[in-house]
Specification:
Layout lengths: L3 H26 L2 E6 L4 H5 L7 H8 L4 E2 L6 E11 L6 E12 L5 E8 L22 H6 L18
């Protein structure tokens, strides 16, 4: 009878550790979601109409995320959603862009909406240094030294002989 009691304690400890481990793994697998940029409100965007002035748009939506570099004729309100799993780099899973185009007199000419599928990722800084030389496969690396060996017993030829 004495041996049954420690077994129950051991089973209880094992069950508790199993529950704690599974809870930890479940929490570790859920992503961390992060919203970046402009927070869209659909009712505000519905109030933007052709003919509105820049000042009306600024009062309604606030300062744009970015302005086109060509005469400032387009304002962009950009929102991105990123998910991060455990220790991996964040991955952009959603993007919304509201583009408001102005004519030369400074009134809204057109409004367009874009998503992640409409964009294209451009890598301005590639953190890889290109190297010159030949890319070798594993087999080429293993067998490339066949026939190349250092004959330690052979004497070096003397100049002039």
């Amino acid at each position: 009878m004495k041996s049954a009691h420690p077994r129950r304690k051991l089973k209880a400890v094992l069950a508790a550790s199993l529950i704690a481990t599974s809870a930890t793994l479940t929490v570790a697998c859920s992503p961390v979601v992060e919203e970046r940029g402009y927070i869209f409100d659909a009712k505000d965007l519905k109030q933007v109409h052709p003919g509105d002035s820049r000042e009306q748009i600024r009062q309604l939506l606030g300062t744009p995320s970015t302005v086109s570099t060509v005469r400032g004729e387009a304002w962009y309100y950009i929102s991105s959603k990123f998910e991060t799993y455990a220790f991996y780099a964040p991955e952009e899973v959603d993007r919304k862009v509201a583009a408001i185009y102005f004519d030369k007199s400074g009134v809204v000419d057109d409004v367009a909406y874009y998503g992640l599928e409409d964009g294209r990722v451009i890598n301005f800084v590639d953190r890889k240094t290109p190297t010159r030389g030949k890319e070798m496969t594993v087999l080429e690396q293993l067998f490339s030294n066949i026939g190349r060996y250092n004959n330690a017993g052979a004497s070096k030829p003397q100049p002039g002989n």
